[in-house]
Amino acid sequence: MKALVTGATGFVGAAVVRALIKAGVDVRVLSRRDSDVSNLQSLTVDYAYGDLRDNVSLRNALTGCQQLYHVAAHYALWAKDPSIFYDVNVAGTKNLLEAAREVGTERIVYCSTIGAIGLPPDGGPGTEDTPVSLSQMAGHYKRSKYLAEQEVLRMAKEGLPVVIVNPSAPVGEGDVKPTPTGQMIVDFMKGRMPAYIETGMNIVDVDDVAAGHLLAMQKGRIGERYILGCKNLLLREVFEILSKLTGIKAPSIKLPRSAVLPLAYANHWLANLTGRPPRIPLEGVKMAKYKMHYDCSKAIRELGIPQAPPEVALGKAVRWFKSHGYA
Hints:
The chain is of the alpha/beta class. The protein has helices at residues 11-22, 55-62, 83-103, 140-157, 180-189, 206-219, 235-246, 257-274, 282-287, 297-303, 310-323; strands at residues 2-6, 26-31, 46-49, 67-70, 107-111, 162-167, 169-171, 195-196, 200-205, 225-228, 231-234, 253-254. 43% of the residues lie in helices and 16% in strands. Helix 5 (180-189) packs across helix 11 and helix 7 packs across helix 11 (310-323).
């Protein structure tokens, strides 16, 4: 059995590669020649060089692979040119899945995002069946992933053997970029969190997310979505766990979102002017309006995704960031 993994140099993708190798699967990774492959240096993989916007490279990479894990995405809360979100996340996904259909890939897992899952208006946890629309997507990343997911669902109805997974907020080892959640942990460890805006998130161990990908490949129902998450927490609770793990005092000042929003708009304007990412991401502040809490029972029931406690997952992240000089 051979599997192609896109996005393998990233946080979740590298975890998927490690899980596949441990399971005895031969792995080929799609990578650009200038990609940072530090997450893969100790792993035995076959490299296929290409890009989601290059159809020939996609067909070449998929040839000989029975399985496809599409984890690649442009994941950020800001970009000077927002078109990159749609070129990579929407058009790139469509290109890849069309290539998979052409070469006859037997089974596909598409990694979406929890942001494409709806949240009930009464504030309860979202499920795979909670109604949601494009108008509810805050920011270009979420909008592009929502549109990409619609393409995947359409192709599944046409017979493409694809299963969708929606990770919540993964934390753990190998967050090289780091992701927005990982950056929050780094900022906490550096003492850059004097205050916070209360919100909610669902924390999950990145290794459990990787296991969820493999389980979706084995057990997932075609055209179905599965939330890969674990525990719903308030941001204050996340900081309390980090405080116990690091000995750093958790922030005690809770700011109203209305006080931070004007600063975020100003920071966004400055980022567009300078080309440097904002320190206060506007989309992050907008998303703080919602408690991103979700019901993960479908993935637990149908797939059997592991459920490492958030203390374990956050502990892995803290140790990895510290040992790699991030904080």
